[in-house]
């Protein structure tokens, strides 16, 4: 069965009202965008969500899948103990992907999901009672082309699967958009965000245009989402999509992009 849903989401803990408190309303547009994606996942009866996170067990030269049989949302580091939902990993999918990837993927086992997975899953799955999870971390030292390649491997496994599958790229854009940004300010931050959004809005030659992005621009932007996004684009491959940017907010000095790919 082909991929049914693909989306980019931010993973700010402030999106959860019990954590964000007064700041939660600042990200109202992003919260609403999340709700729209959640409704689409429910409407498509999604059975497996593959989530690509920058905050899992990131290794330098290989990708990592959290293959613990049961995975629990964990937001305790932000003082919120109310998010206690547990999921089963889609172990069949994980092992098929591992088989075709060889040593490109390593398996880990941690019953607690990282917050790059926990925040999106908390917000997207309340109406998906039996959904299974594949939580995948990108590789810090591998290049963008390698991440496209990983996405292509995921696409191959999806194509052979009878399950109803969604892929979610979790990640934020520049962390350096304002003087109050957590990583300080850089004029390259807004330039990076603008360029990436421009590329995503044009489905023609998306891969080639991202690979042409200036490495210094990427580094100076202080982003944490590009490799997640590139992996997602590798999953989409040559399928046509209609770009649908649901929200882009910079109110807190970080670029929070929510985008739905209409496949």
Provide structural commentary.
It is globular, with a radius of gyration of 17 Å. The model has no long low-confidence stretch (mean pLDDT 96). The protein has nine helices and ten strands. The protein has helices spanning 17-20, 28-43, 91-101, 115-124, 144-160, 187-200, 206-211, 215-221, 226-236, and strands spanning 5-9, 48-53, 63-66, 70-72, 86-89, 105-108, 132-137, 165-170, 242-249, 256-262. It has 263 residues and is of the alpha/beta class. A hairpin with a 6-residue loop joins β9 (242-249) and β10 (256-262). Strands 1, 2, 3, 4, 5, 6, 7, 8, 9 and 10 form a ten-stranded mixed sheet that branches.
Can you summarize this structure?
This protein is an alpha/beta fold.
